[in-house]
Amino acid sequence: MISFELKTGSQQALIDVTQQAQRAVGQSGVEAGVCTLYVPHTTAALTVNEVADPAVREDVLEALRRLVPADLGYHHLEGNAQAHVQAALVGGSVQLPLEAGQLCLGTWQAIFFCEFDGPRTRQVWLSVVPGA
Amino acid sequence: MISFELKTGSQQALIDVTQQAQRAVGQSGVEAGVCTLYVPHTTAALTVNEVADPAVREDVLEALRRLVPADLGYHHLEGNAQAHVQAALVGGSVQLPLEAGQLCLGTWQAIFFCEFDGPRTRQVWLSVVPGA
Amino acid sequence: MISFELKTGSQQALIDVTQQAQRAVGQSGVEAGVCTLYVPHTTAALTVNEVADPAVREDVLEALRRLVPADLGYHHLEGNAQAHVQAALVGGSVQLPLEAGQLCLGTWQAIFFCEFDGPRTRQVWLSVVPGA
Lengths: 132, 132, 132
Prior knowledge:
Three copies of one chain form a homotrimer.
Chain A: E1 2-7, E2 13-16, H1 18-28, E3 33-38, E4 44-50, H2 54-67, H3 81-90, E5 93-99, E6 102-103, E7 109-115, E8 121-130
Antiparallel strand pairs in A: 1-8, 2-7, 3-5, 3-8, 4-7, 5-6
């Protein structure tokens, strides 16, 4: 397992981690197969979406706040139940094909770390498995 | 990496791609392990759900349109912000166990390509990794 | 592929299956790589979230019931369309890195089987693939 760290600068944000992920894949020495990225946190997630227009990230975050409001009489009393539910909806891992040692992404895609309860220092774990 | 193409016929649809996926798995020659299917698009997704009753697909699509309306003052100005958010909720990849060269699915399950901004010509990428 | 069974005791619940998953990983003999857990059901899902405070599980379930009400004029007439949609939102598989034969989880994390249409006897399938 390989890992990298990032510092998130606001309470909620989608942060492009494609370059860190590609660097970690390079360390693995695996040329073809699948890369799994995983967040060991319960108030964060990972997703792949459009990177060209930053407005897409804003729309995703605003939609998640509309679907899961900050204050809704939650049972969890630490004030971040919203973030736990948002993490459950988006999911804590992504899988990408790997070819010639490179993560395979579509033209408009990047990998985003979803911070739902920041700012914090966060970890991303990677596992790379060889395959066809 | 193996890939297949599909043409989606409407703006939003769940399309059964189980047979194309199984054919691609056959090309890999891997007998046991895990198959990852991945969409290189930012307004489409993949999911596994019931195939027996087509009404389930309609209910999933209608629920996603209710949760993420088409017009909501989005920042992304290309008219398909809804589709980007729906893709973030459903997710762009699925993983299935593989045994005897066959994708392992439950009795009622099929793999669905989720078109959220069609009709378009789309790609699905597959990676197959050997394992237990 | 390895599998384990669980009996769910209520209509909707998040059930910690981390120990069963770890036992199954032990049977595989794989030391490092990735473990995929998969549900062969269309009204259940898998997720990773906080285990320390059981209130988080309640908040996740209540949010999913608020987002996807039980009765909403669904087309699927078996009475469990809610569960099919909830399964599509949460997703039917999780992937975790594996090191020294152990599933890698963050400090507060556990793996939860999400029962959306119980009580039932359910299966979880595991595939373990070796890697870095």
